[in-house]
Amino acid sequence: MGHLTQLYTWEELSKEININCFKNNPSIKSCLTFLRKTPWAEKSRMFIPENSKIV
Question: How far apart (Å, rounded) are the C-alpha atoms in residues 18 and 38?
């Protein structure tokens, strides 16, 4: 997550991945909490291609 926030703004992340933790008062801590507790987020993370803009 820290790597992503160094490469992209929260606004760019929210456009690519439409989740509230990137849109409403974003922080690394709140996003990691959400992503760790959300089963589909953990599964989706595995399908992001390494050469995509997000990774």
Answer: 14
Model pLDDT for residues 16-46, shown as the tens digit of each residue: 888 888 898 899 888 888 888 888 776 665 4
SS3 22: helix
The CA distance from 42 to 32, in Å, is 11
Where do we find the tokens 């995509």? 52
User: What backbone torsions phi and psi does residue 48 show, to the nearest 5 degrees?
Assistant: -80, 120
The pTM of the whole model exceeds 0.85? no
Can you tell me the distance from the alpha carbon of 15 to that of 52, in angstroms, rounded to the nearest whole number?
14
